[in-house]
């Protein structure tokens, strides 16, 4: 029992470490992207930035977001195994957050968290090897990072990504069968898929499905999806504002950044909160996004561009219900967080 508690505490510490190092990258990315897109125009490809200066700012923001997941994975491993774990786990985190392998699978922040933990314990095990002094000097800079990246990278590509790719194909087929059937069920599923991994394969499957339907002139599923993408960051932002005793100062500061990200439909703004408290945050944002998506489908809300948040309101059919569905879904998530998240000790605030 004591060993299990130690492992749990080590993992909790590792996730908190990963989040604390990741936060600046999230904030930089979110703020720059929000500022750039707020000056853009809604087009067929989403929000299109016309100013070169704002495009440069957008590129800097995208770079911040691209670094976010590798940093998370790298410093999870660092917490477990020290410096030798950083580089291989960052590489693996990058791999998790980008399409790879024959099926071009990505697993997002959930995959990066898993690889960060596995890389940390793999490196920790490597450090116990009894080797002569000559080899020991090159272990942390050559042998450990190369071996860790190769072994875990190949394991991920050939063992983990294949079933995930098959599952995503099944999800697309299942959604295709639902289309035209129960609007509420389809909206619930799209909304839940949007929030469950926030930019990961399940979220991207929902995106691909709605984009395919948009090409055929069917815009309601995209409306449900674009309502749902804004709910997780908006819910976390509002929760940090009204339930201040449940969050530390770092979380409350991040809440302001999440607010901007929610307004422009960047779901990833909620990722740091989910990493730190997955068992409470994930259910809350999944349920809230599912409710928002269902309400959007029920009321035939149509988003005419592949982007989300309130920033696209001018190109939405059913504007009132778009806003109402987003508000109600956010309220549901905030209420669940209010009743499930405990207050922090005074020393933690």
UniProtKB/TrEMBL annotation:
GO terms for biological process: phosphoenolpyruvate-dependent sugar phosphotransferase system. This is PTS system transporter protein. It is found in: Cell inner membrane. It comes from Streptococcus varani. Pfam families: PTS_EIIC. The lineage of its organism: Bacteria, Bacillati, Bacillota, Bacilli, Lactobacillales. PANTHER family: FRUCTOSE-LIKE PERMEASE, FRUCTOSE-LIKE PTS SYSTEM EIIBC COMPONENT-RELATED. The chain crosses the membrane at residues 21-40, 60-78, 107-126, 138-158, 178-196, 254-275, 281-299, 320-339. Keywords: Cell membrane, Membrane, Phosphotransferase system, Sugar transport, Transmembrane, Transmembrane helix, Transport. It is a multi-pass membrane protein. One of its GO terms (molecular function) is protein-N(PI)-phosphohistidine-sugar phosphotransferase activity. InterPro entries: Bacterial_PTS_Sugar_Transport, PTS_EIIC, PTS_EIIC_2, PTS_IIC_fruc. GO terms for cellular component: plasma membrane. The keyword NADP does not apply. Residues 11-349 form the PTS EIIC type-2 domain.
């Amino acid at each position: 029992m004591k060993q299990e508690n130690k492992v749990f505490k080590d993992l909790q510490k590792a996730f908190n470490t990963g989040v604390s190092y990741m936060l600046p990258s999230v904030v930089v990315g979110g703020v720059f992207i929000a500022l750039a897109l707020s000056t853009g125009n809604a087009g067929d490809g989403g929000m299109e930035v016309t100013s070169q200066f704002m495009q440069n700012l957008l590129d800097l923001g995208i770079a911040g977001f691209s670094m976010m997941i590798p940093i998370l994975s790298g410093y999870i491993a660092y917490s477990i195994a020290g410096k030798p774990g950083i580089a291989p786990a960052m590489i693996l985190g990058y791999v998790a957050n980008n399409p790879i392998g024959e099926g071009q699978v990505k697993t997002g922040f959930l995959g990066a968290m898993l690889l960060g933990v596995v890389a940390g314990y793999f490196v920790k095990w490597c450090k116990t090897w009894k080797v002569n002094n000559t080899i020991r000097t090159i272990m942390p800079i050559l042998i450990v990072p190369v071996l860790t990246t190769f072994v875990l990278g190949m394991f991920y590509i050939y063992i983990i990504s294949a079933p995930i790719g098959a599952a995503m194909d099944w999800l697309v087929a299942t959604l295709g069968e639902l289309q035209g059937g129960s609007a509420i069920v389809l909206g619930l599923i799209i909304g839940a898929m949007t929030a469950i991994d926030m930019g990961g394969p399940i979220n991207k499957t929902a995106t691909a499905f709605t984009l395919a339907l948009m090409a055929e002139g069917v815009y309601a599923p995209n409306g449900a999806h674009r309502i749902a993408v804004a709910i997780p960051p908006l819910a976390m932002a509002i929760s940090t504002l009204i339930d201040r005793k449940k969050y530390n100062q770092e979380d409350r500061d991040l809440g302001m950044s999440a607010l901007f990200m929610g307004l422009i439909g960047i779901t990833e703004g909620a990722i740091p909160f989910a990493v730190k408290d997955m068992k409470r945050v994930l259910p809350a944002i999944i349920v809230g996004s599912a409710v928002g998506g269902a309400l959007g489908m029920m009321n035939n809300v149509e988003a005419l561009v592949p982007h989300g948040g309130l920033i696209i309101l001018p190109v939405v059919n059913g504007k009132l219900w778009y806003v109402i569905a987003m508000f109600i879904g956010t309220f549901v998530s905030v209420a669940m967080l209010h009743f499930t998240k405990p207050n922090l000790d005074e020393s933690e605030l």
